[in-house]
């Protein structure tokens, strides 16, 4: 038997072999590039954290723990109590989330479940555009519009209060909460809605008792991401919260000035002497802020992965 290939068949195999090798090499290069970019992102985060550790860890050796976690912040007298800053950030962030959560979830429900298609196509881009407004512009708006309203209508001694900062942070967190919550509602299977309607439930009963509970993990993720967005904000908060390093321990502290960790770093880093105790104290606050933000994002990522595993996308 003659197994010799015809001339045209042998030439075809000869041409296909280099093409297959080139395709393999191109795939290898693309995969390697993606892998390098992915690991470099993690590497940048690690390098930033190492830089913070190098500049901020000396404060824990130069100052006693009682001073670092004290209740007063007076760097001029070597008093670096960070507790007012931590509580101020937590106070403003929690208040902003309490304002943004119902507004964000209700808006996401309206966009996904109630609004007609043409309205949805208009609202979604507009909501995403809100995230692009510079924070310094919102800070000016808060100083000249919201702060006078807070002072006159709420009988506050000053309009630059924690409540003013919470209002601005709630507005800045809304695009993130709405977008993520709307995606979570969109991921709920249509069969859930059809089954509820087939059993006699009204449209609103289907939304609030079936669709929203089914998307609760995604909504929780939206809240965590919005909280991370709020706690890391600097310029707007620095401009409207009054920057008073005081302990917000009473209810009326919501209508009094506070100071956040981010505002402290932004306001004092430009004037501090490099290598001084004050310098290391600011980087120590940066370490606390980094760990807190990382923990919030870690919880949000865990909720996202848990949702994917339940959905069979593992």
Written account of the structure:
This protein is an all-alpha fold. It has two domains: 7-56; 65-310, MetI-like (MetI-like fold), CATH 1.10.3720.10. The chain has 13 helices and two strands, in the order αααββαααααααααα. The chain has helices at residues 7-56, 59-62, 65-68, 83-114, 117-130, 135-153, 162-186, 190-198, 203-214, 216-231, 235-240, 261-268, 277-310, and strands at 73-74, 79-80. Strands 1-2 form a two-stranded antiparallel sheet. α7 (162-186) runs antiparallel to α10 (216-231) and α10 runs antiparallel to α13. The model has no long low-confidence stretch (mean pLDDT 81).
List the helices and strands and how they pair.
Elements: H1 7-56, H2 59-62, H3 65-68, E1 73-74, E2 79-80, H4 83-114, H5 117-130, H6 135-153, H7 162-186, H8 190-198, H9 203-214, H10 216-231, H11 235-240, H12 261-268, H13 277-310
Antiparallel strand pairs: 1-2
């Amino acid at each position: 038997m003659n197994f010799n290939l015809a001339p045209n068949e042998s030439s075809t195999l000869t041409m296909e072999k280099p093409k297959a090798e080139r395709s393999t090499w191109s795939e290898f290069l693309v995969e390697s590039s993606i892998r390098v970019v992915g690991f470099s992102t993690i590497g940048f985060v690690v390098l930033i954290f190492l830089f913070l550790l190098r500049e901020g860890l000396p404060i824990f050796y130069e100052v006693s723990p009682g001073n670092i976690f004290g209740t007063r912040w007076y760097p001029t007298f070597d008093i670096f109590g960070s507790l007012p800053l931590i509580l101020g950030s937590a106070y403003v962030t929690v208040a902003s989330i309490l304002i943004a959560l119902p507004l964000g979830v209700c808006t996401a429900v309206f966009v996904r479940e109630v609004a007609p298609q043409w309205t949805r196509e208009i609202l979604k881009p507009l909501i995403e555009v809100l995230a692009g407004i510079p924070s310094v512009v919102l800070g000016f708006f808060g100083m000249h519009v919201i702060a006078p309203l807070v002072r006159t209508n709420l009988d506050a001694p000053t309009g630059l209060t924690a409540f003013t900062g919470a209002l601005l942070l709630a507005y800045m967190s809304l695009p993130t909460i709405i977008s993520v919550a709307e995606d979570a509602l969109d991921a709920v299977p249509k069969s859930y809605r059809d089954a509820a309607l087939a059993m006699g439930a009204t449209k609103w009963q289907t939304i609030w008792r079936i669709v929203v509970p089914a998307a609760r993990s995604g909504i929780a993720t939206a809240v965590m991401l919005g909280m991370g967005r709020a706690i890391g904000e600097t310029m707007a908060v620095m401009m409207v919260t009054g920057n008073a390093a005081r302990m917000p321990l009473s209810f009326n502290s919501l209508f009094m000035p506070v100071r956040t960790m981010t505002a402290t770093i932004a306001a004092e880093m430009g004037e501090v002497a490099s290598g001084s105790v004050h310098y290391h104290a600011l980087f120590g606050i940066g370490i606390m802020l980094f760990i807190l933000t990382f923990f919030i994002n870690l919880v949000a990522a865990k909720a996202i992965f848990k949702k994917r595993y339940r959905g069979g996308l593992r």
